[in-house]
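Input sequence (283 aa), recorded before submission:
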Amino acid sequence: MDMQALLERQSFIELDARGRAKKLVDEGTFNELLGPFERVSSPWLKRQGIVTQADDGMVVAKGTIDGQPAVVLAIDGGFQGGSMGEVSAAKIAGSLDLAADDNRRGIPTRAVILFETGGVRLQEANLGLAGIAEIHAGIVDLRRYQPVIGITAGPIGCYGGMSIAAGLCSYLIGTREARLGLNGPAVIEQEAGIAEFDSRDRAMIWSFTGCEQRHRTGLLDVYTADDADAIRTAIIDCFRAGRPDACRSERVVGFLQRLSEVDPRVQATPEQAAAIFSRGFAS
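Predicted structure, token format:
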């Protein structure tokens, strides 16, 4: 990319959740549901002395993408680290359910989920976990009709139960700045020791869980620059491609085969992981 093109590029990461959703839908079609003026916030955070946010850190936008009905679900990583509580999770799960109902009525509504989240909101514990489980079910239901596209752009990345949601998506898009993993670096270090995973070693963390490596290992479908237009184009391309022959969660046998090739007695390297997992995952 030449310098002029680089200067003209609009960063997707620098947009807030609402700005990201507006950028992805067709111009003039953005319509927010249960926005901040509805004052639907967490009933639990205030009781714990935590300042709430009027939309509970979750933006739900209806519009069209490539001329087709769509809902964009953008998690606000700036509020509680993008964590999922009862309200924010219900906004995603409910939207997915309504999109699936649209398809059953002949309206081909598709969904895009912007993952900027550390997973469950610890202050809401079981309520958040239950909500994430409903999100999982909603993705699996909707993807029978239309592709469900996930995006993790950074800088928080996507972890915890929401990384499982990302894995359930029909297609997953990521940038160099983002990371994707079930457990965060600090959690791995806490449970397995610093010799296993040093949470202060940023280069090592990105070499294993960064989206470039996730793309090399086949866990990410599209690896793109931090460019709002490029990300929108990637979404449209995925929707036009239609439902994949088999989603990742339908390739269990292939994943187990690849995992069986990993020797847990030897400290893994990014190169070894890429060599094993890039061979693909049969259904």
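Checked by second reader. Strands lie at 31-33, 58-65, 68-75, 110-114, 148-152, 171-175, 222-224.
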